[in-house]
Write a structure and sequence with these properties.
Helix content: 25-40%
CATH superfamily: Class I glutamine amidotransferase (GATase) domain
Number of helices: 8
Order of helices and strands: HEHEHEHEHEHEHEEEEEH
Low-confidence stretches: none
CATH architecture: 3-Layer(aba) Sandwich
Largest sheet: 9 strands, mixed
């Protein structure tokens, strides 16, 4: 039986197609409502394409509703937010140093599994990068200043604080950004410690801290990319390029199905 949420979205998508003579695709956000910060993810993507509708999954009430949306989604964005529970990477004793949301963890581990099964494009941002790494067996630094160092300030009180990153010229990320050096916002206190076996680093900060990952083996694999910074909060051309490339990959995913 078709769910109410799915029926509503199908009606919305059909309405967009009828009014604009072109169908729109649905992009799922692990969390895209609740504050201006969360709403910015959908706005960023929609500002760079008139072919999409972004849907928040965190506010849904049941796993059935989540699965219904994922069944018609063209791509998944794992957004920023609180810390991944340290128990998920063998550091349960560090829980007191973290701000956690068990519902978010449970939801996103499920979404990663579904996206992998469906071979759909995935974009991870900040926490999104971190949980993708943990989901595949990697680990995190619980707190960068305490556990890694302060040669580069990775977190300030706002997203209007910046640091430099260097992109690997052989990476997918470089293929998208077309620039080797970027200035990105400093808005995270956690990050990758041990990278999962199936990922490779595509960007790092001046202190060698990991700032981006992608699949090690990309052949015949869906689009997969994650960055530690917040491109949705930047007005740069590279930020626009990332949004547009992800949307294009989602369109390709739909068209080849």
């Amino acid at each position: 039986m078709i769910g109410i949420v799915l029926l509503f979205l199908l009606t919305l998508l059909w309405g967009c197609a009828t009014s604009q003579n072109e169908s729109k695709i649905l992009i799922a956000l692990s969390k895209g409502v609740g504050s201006e910060h969360y709403e910015r993810y959908g706005k960023w993507l929609e500002e760079n394409s008139d072919k999409i509708i972004c849907v928040d999954l965190y506010s849904l009430q049941t796993q059935e509703e989540v699965d219904d949306i994922m069944s018609i989604a063209a791509g998944l964005v794992l957004t920023g937010g609180p810390d991944v529970h340290p128990d998920k990477y063998g550091r349960k004793f560090d829980t007191a140093r973290c701000e956690i949301d068990p519902k978010r963890d449970s939801l996103e581990f499920h979404l990663i599994k579904l996206a992998k099964e469906k071979k759909m494009p995935v974009l991870g941002i900040c926490r999104g990068l971190q949980i993708l790494n943990v989901a595949q067996g990697g680990t995190l630094f619980v707190d960068i200043p305490d556990d890694y160092g302060t040669d580069v300030i990775h977190r300030c009180d706002s997203v209007f604080c910046y640091h430099n990153v260097t992109i690997d010229t052989l990476s997918l990320l470089y293929n998208i950004m077309k620039e080797r050096k970027l200035k990105v916002n400093s808005y995270h206190h956690q990050g990758i410690n041990i990278i999962a076996d199936n990922y490779v680093v595509n960007a790092h900060a001046d202190d060698n801290f990991i700032e981006g990952i992608e699949l090690k083996d990309k052949e015949n694999k869906p689009f997969f990319l994650a960055v530690q910074w917040h491109p949705e909060r930047l007005k740069s051309e590279t930020s626009k390029r990332l949004a547009r490339r992800f949307v294009n990959e989602c369109l390709y995913f739909v068209n080849k199905k």
